[in-house]
Amino acid sequence: MSEMKGESVSSTIEAAVRVETKRQPLPPRERLQQVFDIRDLTAIYGSKPALKDVSMEVYKNLVTAVIGPSGCGKSTFIRCLNRMNDLVPSFRQTGTIRYHGQDISGRDVDPVAVRRTIGMVFQRPNPFPKSIHDNVAWGLKVLGMKDNLSDRVERALTQAALWDEVKDRLKASALSLSGGQQQRLCIARAIAVEPDVVLMDEPASALDPIATQAIEQLLHELKGQYSFVIVTHNMQQAARVADMTAFFSISRGEEGERWGELIEYDATEKIFTAPSDRRTEDYVTGRFG
Amino acid sequence: MTSLDATTDAARRPFPGRRARFGDLILQGTAGIAAVGALVLVGLIVWKIASGARPALHAFGLPFVWHVVWNPVHGREAYGAGSFLFGTAVTSIGALLLATPIALGVALFLSELAPGWIRGPVTALVETLAAIPSVVIGLWGILVLAPILRDHVDPALHSTIGFIPLFGPSSYGSNVFTGIVVLTIMILPIIASISRELFLTVPQELKEGALGLGVTRWEMVRGVVFPYAGGGVAAAMILGFGRAVGEAIAVALVLGDGLGIHLNLFDTGQTLGGKIALNYQGSGSGLETSSLIYLALILLVFSILVNLLAQLIVRRAARRKGLAA
What we know:
The complex is a heterodimer. By secondary structure, chain A is an alpha/beta fold. In chain A, 36% of the residues lie in helices and 25% in strands.
């Protein structure tokens, strides 16, 4: 995973400003509805802390971007939000993650039910080795949403801006699609089961610019129905798609230990044009690393 | 071609010409001889068995394959493979049916569910089970397993589901059912350890993709792990089946050397391999010996067919995946 260097500092800022001018102004935060309320989240793999004391809120029907250098714990962070880290045997976490008021990090909460409501799209496109149709239909069938199956599949593929490209070959293998199409299929698969939140872990990092653009366009169109949290190492992308941006960075302890930390969380425009923390400014202007 | 050219042309040609290297020659020679040797060996075996079986082939012809008779009494000699072919099929299929679900369960447990500290030791144990010589399992079967089955399991099955003809009255500890259980124990570790490795090859990304939709572990296994590993698991099953078909000593000890075609699993039986192992030493006449070799010929053909089937399935699965990729 290579981080982008500062070769495009000015274009970053320009892009941010350009997008800003098109963006609807955000209502004041207290008028926004909270989806997640995260308090003092600390995540540990084995004995190594990956994240320390993260506190932030995620708001409904917005795109929230998580940016930061490699190893700052941004993937760990969003994998906490749908209990994906449960699959890692040595993983532990402390703090609370309230989803509409309920703490979902407790042992008594069913992670399967959490993931059912909070969907995920992964870094590398990971379609199942099934047909295009079955990739979307499988989750629907397993989860008992069998009524109007073909309508649901069509709707999900349409929402993911893939329908026109695949409607004539729904029985073809999903693996015959291009990388960008595969990723949009994975998005269709995730939204077909009607989650409330969709988490995206660097969804465009393995894609070419055109496929990336298609996915960013899709985020704009879908955020009326879902709330998105998107991890990206691409700052222009955050500037283009996100309403709110959280900047994570790496902190170093006295004995050389490293962990990720939330440095600053604000409206995207503010993060990219007038950050209040020096470290954020260094990162978004490309002076960092 | 020679190194001489290369040195004289060195100024114009920076690379020397192609030349034969001693090590390569040796490798090619030994590997070639080994490959041809294997072919010759298989050919010799087939030829030897076919020629040994010729007197019986002459005397009984093709009907030998399905005739249910084995009478070595001089003057009334008559032989047929029907009973043993049937016994082989019943014990092997029974063992496969019994072993497959358990083996898949073991494999799933070891690859998906078990905590790390259990995985290592249990995996090693399962693989050790596969390495136990079949004669030891056969001996254990006759000394330990057969009495237990005879005294407890067989009567219980007969009294509860005895209305199914398979579970008829039992009297001996050595019967078809004991043979099935012994074969199950033998092929279970093969299917389990191969399946475990196949399950481990399923990419973590695919599993996470499924779990991320909010499905349970079992639904993930059924929807993603099984389809992904399916062709390989089928091949593992056929490999286990092949071992069950070819097994001689262990089943010869526990089947009770019966003759006949019957549904009752609690009656005696015999397999092709078992009959050969039991009777070859003491076979009275040339015709009986030849008939035993005829049995071996049938076993050989049967095994080859099973093997071809396995390759076909694996290739079809691979092609499906290849098409997909």
